[in-house]
Amino acid sequence: MSGQGGATPGRVLARRVAALVGALVLGAAIGVAVERFAGTAWGFVAVPLAVVVGWWRFADPTQCAADASQPDAARRADG
Fold this sequence. Notes:
This protein has about 80 residues and is mainly α. It contains three helices and no strands. The protein has helices at about 10-40, 45-60, 70-79. Helix 1 runs antiparallel to helix 2 (about 45-60). It is elongated.
């Protein structure tokens, strides 16, 4: 798994899940703070924005691409 410093897939997944949860918590905290101090619920727009920023930071689109080193038949056989 290049680009991950030799980390196992389980550790990479755990890191991504932790980042997602962290982004949700950060967005919710910003929403609560804005609602409390400004009296408007518009602060909760921070929740999806935090997830988007987290996605840009932690997502790895190469993990979604088919493995080019395997022929099509081998990929289908692997499931």
